[in-house]
Amino acid sequence: MSIAAAMAMRTRLSALSDSPELDVSLLLCRCIDKPRSYLYSWPERELTAEQQQQFLQFLARRIAGEPIAHILGERDFWSLPLAVSPLTLIPRPDTECLVERALEMLTGHENPLILDLGTGTGAIALALASERADAEVLASDFSSEVVALAQRNRDALGLTNLQLVCSNWFSDIPRKRFNLIVSNPPYIDPDDPHLSQGDVRFEPMSALVAAEGGMADLRCIIQESPNYLVTGGELLLEHGYDQGELVRQALSERGFTQVASQLDYGGNERISWGRWQ
Ligand code: GLN
């Protein structure tokens, strides 16, 4: 089988994936250990028998619905290659909006102390730690296996300014005052029909779903954060496309000021924040 023939098998994914060409090219690149540009420069090259067998196995897994990130065991976030596992959320491009906003909020603060709650792969914490060498980042997850995964990602990237702790939201966070608290908590309504479609079927419910129509964990974080923020510190949250108003309301009711939201790349309200005065 040639590279071009393998690429043509993207049609097998058209019913299932929004990005069949990207999916097939990522699987193929892994099998032949070459960058994506190679696929377009050398379409006539033949796969070895071993490469072809692996490609067909990967493709069968994708056709069965498995996310590309799980098949490859890896996903890039903020241009950092991160190991992923079925125990965590697969990092999403929209969450990079939260990183961008966090970096803007930290402009002018030297040596900021940052807390990332429910870090999963460590995506947000690692992006911030890599951009701000002067920052001290603490990231938590309630699962010790997930903490170990985030630690492996940190060590693979050689970042030394990130510490990890096993904690159920604030239960085991040291009593410190942070300049910025960030989180992408579970926020999907348990009755949301999207939970039975596409890649999310392979992600853990614990990382996706929250009670109270998806608001329970967001509310818990908003309630507790002021006990862990310096005066003038900020809380920055990712939330569902239709939760902006509820999150702004919860932030204002708790006493946060300068409450605002921002859209994601798809034009939906996706992040909101407030300042603790
Ligand atoms: N944005 C994700 C989705 O819609 C959910 C992420 C989350 O619950 N934190 O699939």
UniProtKB/TrEMBL annotation:
EC identifiers of the protein: 2.1.1.297
Protein task: Methylates the class 1 translation termination release factors RF1/PrfA and RF2/PrfB on the glutamine residue of the universally conserved GGQ motif.
Ligand binding (substrate): N184, P185, P186, Y187
Binding site for S-adenosyl-L-methionine: G118, T119, G120, T121, G122, D141, W169, N184
CDD domains: AdoMet_MTases
Protein name, UniProt field: Release factor glutamine methyltransferase
GO aspect biological process, one term: methylation
One MF term in the entry's GO annotations: peptide chain release factor N(5)-glutamine methyltransferase activity
Domain Methyltransferase small stretches: 104-189
Membership in a protein family: Belongs to the protein N5-glutamine methyltransferase family. PrmC subfamily.
Catalytic activity: L-glutaminyl-[peptide chain release factor] + S-adenosyl-L-methionine = N(5)-methyl-L-glutaminyl-[peptide chain release factor] + S-adenosyl-L-homocysteine + H(+)
